[in-house]
Amino acid sequence: MELISQHVKRIMENCKVRARAVGLKFDNETLEYIVTNRDLINLMPKHMVPTIYDYWVHDVEVLRERGKYELSPGNPYESVINTRPAISFYNDNNPDWLNTMIFYHVLGHIDFFQNNFLFKHTWFDDFAEQAAKDKEVIEKHRAQHGRWVDYVIEFSRNIDNLVSFYKTACSFDELSPLDTSEKVSYYFDIFLQDVKTESISEYLNELDRYNADLKIHGSHADEVFFAGVLAKHSEFNQVYAKFQENKKKKPSDLFEYLIENSAYLNRIENEWMLDVMHIVRNTSMYFQPQIRTKIFNEGWASYWHETLFLQDLLHNPQLKGNETNYAVINAGVTSLSRVGLNPYAIGLRLIKYIEDMADKGKISHDFQKIQDRSARAKYDMHTGKGREFIFQAREFMDDFNLINTFVDQDFCDMHDLFVAASYIDEERGTEVFYVKSRKAKDYKQMLIDNLYHPPKITIDQQKSSSHNLYLVHSFEGRQLVQEYIPNTMMGIGFLWGGSVQLETHEIHSEPTDDPKKKDTMVNKVVHTMSDERVYSKKVI
User: Which residues, including other chains, have CB under 8 Å from residue 389's CB and lie 6 or more apart?
Assistant: First the structure.
């Protein structure tokens, strides 16, 4: 692995100039490396961070990917890491025109990483450097404790999808675009709405009063404002102090609860395990926003490589003659899948769709009231605000917000989208696919069902004790993956130092005379992993 040549670096720097000219924002410094196709797959199983801590699963994934490569060599094109500076990797056999296209794609990713609000807790850290330090810590403990380090890593990674990402992300008040204090946020978001249950008019009056104080008193606005609050609600300071105290005592997720409350982990001889758990949790937290913005992020990068490269084709004579090559590669990346989901394709088309809607003024209540299809198609207020709107969406939306807000019937009809299903034709011995629905609400739900949605696991304090941890799964229509439950509970039991119980629901399906339908029944069950690592399950 080595840095790209000066010739290729100049291409990248020219791409940066043109990308900034259309509104993309990113740091000046970036690092680009070239690797072989085969070596590039070694970066993928570690989420493209080669400095991340060693773990046996990484090696298994590398071997599996190498096996796939030997069977059917492919071209992964690029990998990019959300670090400071941003690091990206490219194949060593790319021609200049392909590098130009890929550079635009990578700059789209970097812009998304450095401006989307979900990534704000990553903006001031160099994760590659931190990962290298974490790796040293892991190796130090591994030299002293041997295979027990890998047990703790495995048990921790079994629950690293249970980190409370949104609560942690919202705790970065100093990075808030509104720059409001935590006390002000508490007053408006919790005290007025949940504690006092004030009317909307009273809430708006208080908001107007705060904005007026900001305008008049500037940096002293909070002091003046809360003097008025205490005149109306003398108990506010006591209620806020109690909120702060409870917040400090209450962990945000199962991971933190184990770290803070497990008597076993907090023994002096086991404190090294806390180091390992913190590393696993922080690593998971770093990659949570990438998991939650896969469709938007890939669509955003695809939108800009398409937009900027097509502009270059018109004005850059060095790219002439590669129109067909570009079209083939771009189609392979962004073509719609009739069965399955291509995040590049859906994300790209959604961004283009909402840009067109904003250009025509269709993102408005007046447009939504129109029911006539021809009138909706002809509606055009010529606002010219499409580009501005997609930049705002890039800043504040994740995959769920994007899909839930903008996937409508017009979008589905425009791209002939549908929900496919299948059944087994026993007579012919084949799987038969059919169009199940063309309704936007069904297609939207299919997309949402395919998004990352980890289970919500909470701790029942009343049923828990120092020797038994009672967990409750909030059932949302999806059952937990049954085959993983015993091993995961065994790991939690090890970290807790006692037995573990898990209350959840299971769905049982029974076939009917109609091969396309099934009868379903939901049972409430409790899984138990005893101190002796004996597993049992009981319907309640």
Answer: 354, 355, 358, 363
Distance CA 407, CA 443 (A): 8
E strands, 41-110, are 78-81, 86-91
Q: Looking at the DSSP assignment, which residues form a beta bridge with residue 471?
A: 459, 502
Q: Exposure pattern of 29-44 as b/e (b: 16+ CB <10 Å)?
A: ebebbbbeeeebbbbe
Can you give the pLDDT at residue 58? 45
Residue 377 tokens, joined: 């198609």
Classified as helix, coil or strand, 240 is helix
What lies within 8 Å, CB to CB, of 347 at 6+ separation is 295, 296, 297, 298, 299, 300, 302, 303, 402
Q: Each residue of 515-532: pLDDT tens digit?
A: 556 677 889 999 999 988
Which alpha helices (DSSP H) does 22-95 contain, by range? 37-43, 56-71
Residue 231 class from Cβ within 10 Å (0-12 exposed, 13-18 middle, 19+ buried)? exposed
For 190, the token pair is: 């919790």
Please give the pLDDT value at position 174. Answer: 43
Name the residue ranges covered by the structural domains of the chain: 2-116+293-329, 127-164+252-290, 170-249, 457-539
What pLDDT shows up at residue 185? 85
Residue of 306, 360, 334 whose CA lies nearest to 415: 334
Give residue 93's identity as a one-letter amino acid code.
Answer: N
Classified as helix, coil or strand, 78 is strand
In angstroms, the CA 218 to CA 206 distance is 17
Q: Helix or strand or coil: residue 507?
A: strand
Burial classification of residue 19, based on how many CB atoms lie within 10 Å of its CB (0-12 exposed, 13-18 middle, 19 or more buried): buried
For residue 509, the SS3 value is strand
Q: Which residues of the chain have pLDDT under 50?
A: 44-51, 56-74, 76, 173-179
Contact 467, 499 (CB under 8 A): yes
Max intra-chain CA distance, the chain: 80
